[in-house]
Amino acid sequence: MEQSDVKAAYPSPGAQVWERFKHDKVALVGTGGVVFLVLVAVMAPFIANGRPLLLFRDGHLSLPFLRYLFAPDTIEVVVEKFFNYILFFSIPSAIAWLMLKRRKGLMLKILAIWALILVVPFILVNPRLDKTDWRQECSSLKAGEFAIFAMVPYGPFENCAEPFLKPDRSHYFGTDQIGRDVLSRMVYGARVSLAVGFLATGLTMFFGILIGMICGYFGGRFDFLMMRIVEIIMCFPTFLLLLILMAIMMDRKYQQSILLVIAVIGLTSWTGLSRIVRGETLQQRALPYIKACESIGVSIWKILFRHILPNITGPILVSFTFGIAGSILAESGLSFLGFGVQPPTASWGELLRQAFSDPLRYWHLTLWPGLAIFIAVVSFNFAGEGLHRAFDPKSD
Predict the structure, then answer these.
(1) Which region holds residue 297: left if phi is over 0, alpha if psi is between -120 and 50, else beta?
(2) pLDDT computed for residue 2 by the predictor
(3) Is the dihedral of CA 166, 169, 173, 179 positive or negative?
(4) Is the peptide bond before 344 cis (omega within 30 degrees of 0)?
(5) Helix, strand, coil percentages in the chain from 3-state DSSP, rounded to 5
(6) CATH number, span 182-395
(7) Prediction pTM value
């Protein structure tokens, strides 16, 4: 029997999970929403940009927007560079995968070299303030000259119209309180929400998995002490704790507000996961294969990360998906109250805050950010429910 026939006859646990997941319509809808949000965030400079993507003038062809992908003129430089790096890395990666998918070794070497080379311009290119009114500049182009702008020809920080304009052909989602294009700020707000969602939840995963596995495997006094600390932290209302910590850090004039939000949410949300991981580790700890590993002298860290961790990934992945939705909601709530991502950085919660004085009059500042938050949270929750059913088909 050939290897492919064996795989078909005896699918791996991962293949069985994937088979159940891809036949779950709700899970696929959620996954589609997640993919859409990720694409919007990564492709943001090509969707909304006040600088021409391509300019032909005086016989020269130029890309005015390109420099600012490597050196964004924004306070939240780290997050912008993170998504721009993914943008530059993902396109060649997709091409390499299509061309070399049968030669995985060569493909991985090429991608590793490209990943290292790509770091260089992000380090060497210095930020530069650009106050050029490109739309005005391009309005006087001569015959044969041309400029190609993004679908939304406005940057997220540009005061391009009157405040609180309703949606029209020039500004599809209207403008905010100081005349910035709402659609442009919505697109870049997706970067903020996903950065907080993925990175804060990643931080939560790190501490939750590490502490939960150590407590579950070793037990004893350390387990008793850590679980009492977890219970104490869980006694505090999470959102109130977030507000207190954010207020303290903002008083210290910390500028990188997105990184602060990520750190605060990540460091206050690991307790629930640590209890889940501890329980799963206790179950695995009692199984014969762990005792066999211990009897032949396998190191503790190999037991934890090579044997136990792969066998408890199901609950961890489900928690990760739900955690992203919770982090997005937490960031939006903090920004709405003025304790989250700080202006002028674009944020869905900050746009909702602008409509607080009169939600019906400024309906475009209520509808679009609220709809984006709804789509993001529902998408991740649907995907999480699908994963839960895929890993545990008896749960239905």
Answers:
(1) left
(2) 47
(3) negative
(4) yes
(5) 70, 5, 30
(6) 1.10.3720.10
(7) 0.90
Kindly state the average pLDDT of the residues 307-319: 91
Torsion angle of alpha carbons 72, 77, 78, 82, nearest 10°? -20
**Residues facing 68 on adjacent strands:** none
Are 154 and 160 in contact, with CB atoms under 8 Å apart?
yes
Q: What is the mean pLDDT of residues 47-70?
A: 91
> Please, what is the end-to-end C-alpha distance for the chain in angstroms?
36
Cross-strand pairs, 181: 175
Q: What are phi and psi of 201, to 5 degrees?
A: -70, -35
pLDDT > 80? residue 44:
yes
3-state secondary structure of 159: coil
Structure tokens at 22: 């891809």
Is the per-residue pLDDT at 1 higher than 60?
no
- What's the CA gap between 367 and 28, in Å, rounded? 25
Evaluate whether 395 touches 388 at the Cβ level (below 8 Å).
yes
| Strand duo 146-148 + 60-62: pairing | unpaired
Closest CA to 281 of 258, 313, 257, 249: 313
Q: Exposed, middle or buried by CB within 10 Å (0-12, 13-18, 19+), for 117?
A: exposed
Count other C-beta atoms under 10 Å from residue 3's C-beta: 7
Domain boundaries, the chain: 41-148, 182-395
Nearest to 177 by CA among 344, 62, 291: 344
Count of beta carbons in the 10 Å neighbourhood of residue 305:
14
Please determine, for residue 61, whether its predicted confidence score (pLDDT) is greater than 80. yes
CB atoms under 10 Å from CB of 36, counted, come to: 14
In the prediction, which pLDDT does 6 show? 45
Q: How far apart are CA 142 and CA 149, in angstroms?
A: 17
Rounded to 10°, the helix 271-285/201-218 angle is: 40
Question: Among 196, 187, 193, which Cα is nearest to 44's?
Answer: 187
- The CA dihedral of 134, 138, 139, 145, to the nearest 10 degrees, is 180
Tokens of 305: 């990360």
Q: The tokens 């182009």 sit on which residue?
A: 141
Asked if 148 and 53 touch (Cβ cutoff 8 Å), the reply is: yes
The H or E element containing residue 54 is strand 54-57
